[in-house]
Amino acid sequence: MTTIEKLKTYLERIKKKNKELNIFLELRPEKELLGEAKKIDGKIKSRKAGRLAGYIIAIKPNINVLGLHASCSSRVLEDYLSTYDATVIEKIRSEDGLIMGMVNSDEFACGSSGETSAFGPVRNPVSPELVPGGSSSGSAAAVAAGFCDLALGSDTGGSIRNPSSHCGVVGIKPTYSTVSRYGLIDLSMSLDQIGPIARDVRDAALLLDVIKGEDERDPISAESPKLSLKEIGKGKKLKVGLLDFKIQDERIQKIINEKVKEASGKYGWTVGHINIPHVGLAIETYYPLVYTEFFSATRKLDGRRYGKKIEEACGPEVLRRILGGAEITKAEHEGRNYHLALKVKKIIEEEYQKAFGDLDIIISPTVSRLPHKIGSKISVEEMYSYDALTIPSNLAGNCSISIPAGKIDGVPVGMQIMADKFNEQKMLEAAALIEKLGMGD
Ligand code: GLN
């Protein structure tokens, strides 16, 4: 299929279903998209096309795309038109990826369900009465709904992997510093990473390979080992740790255990249990860091420099974090909570590093429970608990991926595969092997 044909199919589908699913906030004008698709097809024909030629891509609205709205799904920035491209966007364009538009998300990437957007909740394409997960809700949902081929999300505590798990697609949180954050609107700058969402491991790996790399505009960014896409999916013997963790819904753990057993039989993997002693403190460690860094990052949203004054225009979850951050950073507390959280972060990081001294990958469910019904009342603690298994990877700074592992009553369940820092290659190889086992349907 040509890029134009595929684009038309996607646009038709979006016209039919976007109103209900509330995924796209902004599409580029159709004429412009068709013109660009035609150019890309021309390049493909003359064999001058880049590696992403033919791929149609949706973007989370906290990433700057020149001329489109970086609204962060918030009233605060609803009129903010980006004046430049984020580094990841420049890289996608230079490889001929077609950027389609901006999708919905949780407000300022704060949330785990897609319900905190100022523009209404995103629905899960697999089961529209359920949440799609968050905060990259629209990114995962767009891929799952067949509105695009690929999407970019951002992951601070699970926001790529959690919605990928609930929507039955593949999402990668790269090692911290692998992908430039230049042009990403911060949630928590010591944890945020941009990453790809796709329908399979190979496509996700390709997009990661394009967007990664050192960037002088993000001093934290670093060059990471080259990915060999050819090696992905070849049978390899691996040493696997199954994470010891009390899962809220035991049916989820059962699906993961069965998959791992199948893989170990087929590929000769050695499997044992692994205990990360402080993993149970991840949520308590994460929020003081996020509240503090988010509070600091949002001081420029004062109604004069950018957008509206955030305290006056944001929703309750964003306000909770700003007020919480203001409290934590009060002079009288002398930064105690923030520094304590940093200490535990370091401990968790070291525990994972030690574990990876002996293991190739660590496997767990991505999310410990199934998604709830849109609008049902759940407590803040319950909402935060969605990320109990994803946050550790942000604290440790290593890489992880969520891939579909099975379904419970038709609702997708994701498996999280984690590898040591800069070991994306191993993580992807393992994920592709699990993917190869199929879903039995
Ligand atoms: N759900 C988590 C939070 O609300 C993670 C968000 C994210 O990764 N962007 O902070």
What does it look like?
- This protein is α/β, with parallel strands linked by helices.
- It has one domain: Amidase signature (AS) domain (Amidase signature (AS) enzymes), CATH 3.90.1300.10.
- Helix content is about 40%, strand content about 15%.
- It has an eleven-stranded mixed β-sheet, with helices on both faces.
- The model has no long low-confidence stretch (mean pLDDT about 95).
- The chain binds glutamine (GLN).
- Glutamine (GLN) binds near residues 109, 110, 112, 157 and 290.
By DSSP (H or I, 4+ residues per run), the number of helices equals 14
Can you tell me the CATH architecture?
Answer: Alpha-Beta Complex
Q: Can you tell me the residue ranges where pLDDT is under 50 for at least 5 consecutive residues? A: none
What is the C-level CATH assignment?
Alpha Beta
CATH homologous superfamily title: Amidase signature (AS) domain
> How much of the residues is beta strand, in percent?
5-15%
Bound molecules: glutamine
Side-by-side strand order of the widest sheet: 1-3-2-4-6-5-10-11-9-7-8
What is the residue-averaged pLDDT?
96
Estimate the helix proportion, in percent. 25-40%
- Characterize the main sheet: 11 strands, mixed
Order of helices and strands: HEHEHEHEHEEHEHEHHHHEHHEEH
End-to-end distance, in Å?
26 Å
Instruction: Specify Rg, calculated over alpha carbons.
Output: 20 Å
Q: If you consult CATH, what is the topology?
A: Amidase signature (AS) enzymes
